[in-house]
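Whiteboard transcription, Tuesday session. T.W. wrote the structure tokens on the left side:
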């Protein structure tokens, strides 16, 4: 067992995106903390107090925080929290390349007595069977003896003020006795209650199934919505009636995007398949939810047809991020819908007040509310809180909100 007399935890958060930055900001309230990101531009901006995701303002950043884009600089820290992306490849298989890179980075800076907690969403077994062996192989130290690895799934919910870090319970899987009290104290800054378990695989699985359950439930309500439309039944009336039962779950039909729901079911089904178990329901949400872009596009198309517009009517699709009040365009079906329309109609443009100017430019979008006055019809896909105020000045009869 490591005899290192580690008394003060010096945390370093690796990967400063939607998940990593809030963790770092919270830790910096009590710890001399650092954040490392491979994206140099992100570090330059964060040093100036700019968070292009719009979550944090300059005064949220504590002077205690050191931001680095050079991994050599993080060797003086002893508690690493990993929050890098875990997307899927084109063939829908897990892309662990960022996790792999981080493990290699850590193996270069790790010292005896250091602790690493992975927080990225993964399938069961990634921490034990992929990350730990990779680090051990490259640093000649041993987990559980020289350094200590845990896993804590993240429940950050961007755009949701009700469920901020300190207001929700957080799972921490830590199978060692080494510095457990110190770690729990540090983690108390990251959750209302810390649920401690020794089993990393169970914590990894808990995270993915939380998202699978939600994806499948939304998929089911999307299917019911489509079925009602096909059967010429009033969906909203039916949901109102069904909701009078005490255990009916009120999910809403709509577009599912982002970095979690469209991704995590593939992680779980991948490992199940590898272990010769074929999931039958896990991906069901994916099949339906991915179709919703086409469905919503068709709804809009028929509403536009009913309006009997001139060919050169200027149409603005408003709200393109994957979710209300979030600046994230990843896997956004709203953006996909815009692209489908833009391919066929040069008078259709996109607008989102939340996205940063560089991302907007790359995607050919407007962000400035003053630019919308030249348009004739407004289609709202992601209804940010800001949108109501912005659209106040336009003709109400020319606003379409598809479902
Ligand atoms: N976004 C969410 O709402 C959310 C919620 C819960 C869990 N998660 C999970 O958390 C993880 C991170 O998601 P996110 O949304 O914060 O991603 P993100 O893309 O917003 O941020 C990840 C950051 O990691 C950086 N990065 C990538 N490779 C790196 C490396 N090798 N070294 C250092 N930095 C590196 C990127 O530059 C980026 O800034 C994912 O596994 C995701 O599934 C996300």
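and on the right, the sequence the group agreed on:
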């Amino acid at each position: 067992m490591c005899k290192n007399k580690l008394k003060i935890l010096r945390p370093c958060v690796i990967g400063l995106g939607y998940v990593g930055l809030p963790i770092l900001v919270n830790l910096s309230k009590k710890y001399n903390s650092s954040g490392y990101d491979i994206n140099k531009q992100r570090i330059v901006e964060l040093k100036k107090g700019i968070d292009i995701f719009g979550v944090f303002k300059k005064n949220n950043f504590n002077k205690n925080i050191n931001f680095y884009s050079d991994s050599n600089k993080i060797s003086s820290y002893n508690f690493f929290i990993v929050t890098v992306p875990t997307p899927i490849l084109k063939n829908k298989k897990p892309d662990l390349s960022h996790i792999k890179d981080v493990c290699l980075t850590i193996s270069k800076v790790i010292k005896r007595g250091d602790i690493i907690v992975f927080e990225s969403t993964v399938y069961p077994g990634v921490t034990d069977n992929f990350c730990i062996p990779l680090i051990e192989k490259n640093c000649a130290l041993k987990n559980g003896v020289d350094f200590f690895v845990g896993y804590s799934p993240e429940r950050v919910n961007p755009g949701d003020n009700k469920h901020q870090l300190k207001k929700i319970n957080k799972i921490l899987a830590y199978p060692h006795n080494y510095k457990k009290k110190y770690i729990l104290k540090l983690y108390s800054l990251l959750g209302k209650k810390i649920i401690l378990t020794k089993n990393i695989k169970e914590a990894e699985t808990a995270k993915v199934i939380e998202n699978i359950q939600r994806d499948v439930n939304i998929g089911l309500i999307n299917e019911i919505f489509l079925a009602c439309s096909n059967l010429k039944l009033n969906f909203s009336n039916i949901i109102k009636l069904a909701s009078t039962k005490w255990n009916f779950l009120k999910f809403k039909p709509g577009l599912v995007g982002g970095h979690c729901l469209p991704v995590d079911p593939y992680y779980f089904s991948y490992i199940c398949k590898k272990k010769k178990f074929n999931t039958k329901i896990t991906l069901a949400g994916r099949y339906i939810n991915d179709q919703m872009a086409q469905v919503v596009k068709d709804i809009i198309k028929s509403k536009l047809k009913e309006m009997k517009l001139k060919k050169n009517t200027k149409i603005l699709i408003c709200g393109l991020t994957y979710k209300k009040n979030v600046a994230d365009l990843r896997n956004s079906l709203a953006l996909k819908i815009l692209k489908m329309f833009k391919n066929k109609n040069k008078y259709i443009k996109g607008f989102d007040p939340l996205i940063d100017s560089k991302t907007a430019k790359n995607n050919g979008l407007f962000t400035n509310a003053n630019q919308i006055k030249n348009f004739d019809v407004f289609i709202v896909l992601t209804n940010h809180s800001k949108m109501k105020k912005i659209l106040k000045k336009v003709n109400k009869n020319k606003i379409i909100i598809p479902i």
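Someone added at the bottom: The CA atoms of residues 380 and 401 lie 5 Å apart.
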